[in-house]
Amino acid sequence: MSDSFWLRNDPCPKCRENGGDRRGDNLGVFSDGHLYCWKCGFHKRGHGNNNLIPLAPGRAVGNFRLRLSEYFEKEPLDWLLKYGLSFSEITTFFRWDNEKKWLVFILQGMPIIARTFNPEDNRKYYMLQKQNVIVGLQQYPFLVFVEDMVSAIKVGRQFPTCPLFGVNITDMYPVERGLLWLDYNMSGHMMKIAKRSEAWRMKVTPIITELDPKEYSDEEIKQYVLGVK
Ligand SMILES: [Zn+2]
User: How far is CA 120 from CA 95, 116, 127, 164, in A?
Assistant: First the structure.
């Protein structure tokens, strides 16, 4: 699928078992999630889309009773396929609530946000989890922030990506370096955020594109991100 590239070095568990890797930097961590030890050859296969960095779990909001299933109706499935998500991505990140007609986005086992396909609902998205702070971001050389779940999955194929769902980036743990990628309609809002993040001494560079990241191909996404990174 996408090219895998080196993200950072971590301690190698195998080397450490044998008393080695004192500096804790033998294990290469790559963007597709695979691990490889430079020293002892220990490796672990990537599990594809693991570059999604969730906001720290907050508390559940809305008190919705969900009945989540892996069986999707045609409409939500078509909607996801339209953006080029694979079946494995769909079953990893989504469940379907057939009573509510909600497509529910799951991250690390938790329902985060629902997009409704019920014409009687008066809004499009329902937040299921209140999230505010990202922890442990210092380990990433840089992060891409996007607004929505499908964009996060697509950009996350190649780069560490964090879906914001409207959370203000300056409420988060300082990120050393980030790219904030929202569509053109949001750019006013985005500039404000970028400016405020300066005060926080975060280096957040905006990417302005005509469309949402999810509308672009892997190759286009790569060009956009590497273009400003
Ligand atoms: Zn090792």
Answer: 20, 9, 17, 26
pLDDT tens by residue, 163-216: 887 666 555 555 566 777 766 666 666 666 666 666 555 667 778 888 889 999
CA distance 84 to 80: 7
Predicted pLDDT at 148: 87
Instruction: Judge whether 52 and 153 are in contact, CB under 8 Å.
Output: yes
Distance from residue 25's CA to the centre of ligand 1 (Å) = 9
Task: Name the residues around ion ligand 1, CB cutoff 5 A.
Answer: 12, 14-15, 26, 37, 39-40, 42
Residues 126 and 161 occupy one common structural domain? no
pTM of the model: 0.71
Tell whether 221 and 145 lie within a shared domain.
yes
Q: What is the 158 CA–ligand 1 centroid distance (Å)? A: 25
Count of the separate structural domains present in the chain = 3
- For residues 84-107, give the mean pLDDT: 92
Q: What is the CATH number of the domain that holds 205?
A: 3.40.1360.10
Determine the distance from the C-alpha atom of residue 125 to the mean position of all C-alpha atoms in its chain, rounded to a whole number. Answer: 18
Contacts of 174 (CB under 8 A, 6+ apart): 137, 200, 201, 202
In the reported structure, the alpha carbon of residue 24 is separated from the centroid of ligand 1 by a whole-number distance in angstroms of 10
Q: What is the pLDDT of residues 109-144, one digit of tens each?
A: 778 899 999 999 999 999 888 765 554 555 566 778
Q: What CATH number did the domain enclosing 40 receive?
A: 2.20.25
CA of 140 to the centre of ligand 1 (A): 21
| Cα 51 to ligand 1 centroid, rounded to whole Å | 23
Q: In angstroms, what is the span from residue 186 Cα to ligand 1's centroid?
A: 45
Give me ligand 1 centre to Cα 15, in Å: 4
- Quick check: 2 pLDDT over 50? no
